[in-house]
Fold this sequence. Notes:
Blueprint: E1 13-18, E2 35-36, E3 39-40, H1 41-50, E4 55-61, H2 64-74, H3 78-81, E5 85-87, H4 93-103, E6 110-115, H5 123-136, E7 138-144, E8 149-152, E9 158-162, E10 168-177, H6 178-187, H7 190-193, H8 199-205, E11 211-214, H9 225-247
Parallel strand pairs: 1-4, 1-6, 4-5, 7-11
Antiparallel strand pairs: 2-3, 6-10, 7-10, 8-9
Helix pairs in contact: 6-8
Amino acid sequence: MRPDSLSGMSADTAAVLVAAGLGRRMGGINKTLMRLAGKPVLAHSLATFRACASVGQIVVVMKDVDLERLAAEWHTTPQELGADRVVAGGAERWLSSRNGCEAASSAMKYLLVHDAARPLVTATDIEAVITAARRSGAAIAAEPVADTLKMSCAEDRVQSTMSRDSMWRALTPQVARIDWLLDAFAKWDVEAHGLPTDESMMLEHCGHAPELVAGHSPNFKITAPRDLLLAEALLHDQASDSPSQENHR
């Protein structure tokens, strides 16, 4: 944990990186362990959050079997990559998120949850979501829907066209006051409401409407092999642009 995180300075947020997925569309391989630009996907996510001035603690949620694979295949640990704590994942994504949030330091004012399989989010966008959460109590990264939306009927035919006005795709990070989010986890009733798809859903149920923050960087989730190829290409372009920008100054 950063030394200034307990001194009332700007590092007031605990970041929970959820890396406990099953990777069904990746052949059962945890996506955060896959190679991206010579490093595991997890390393890219951790490096970005470690660079955020507002983040005072990083908690990684990962299953024991994946910790063993990280050590065997990459000869490293989440702590060596920048994590402060590692906790076990749960049976469902929301339970993994809850485990990480409950393990965060109570000295933090805000909790941030991010899917570690979104390695291209930038520190600038992360800071923007945290700033919005400080202002509104809760905020999420999101993207306005640009495509035409169709409602289907039982036969998988178009039933109607929906308006995309005011429609957003929810992304991560999602940030909230620590008391709000822990309370939202405690009050969620799976039997009554089903599995929550993100932290915002639970916050909404408790009467907290997160602020929507549009990002300015690619922030897609790696779920299939083609996503890795795209992420690799984008990282290559960023690396290629950096020297040329220096030469033109």
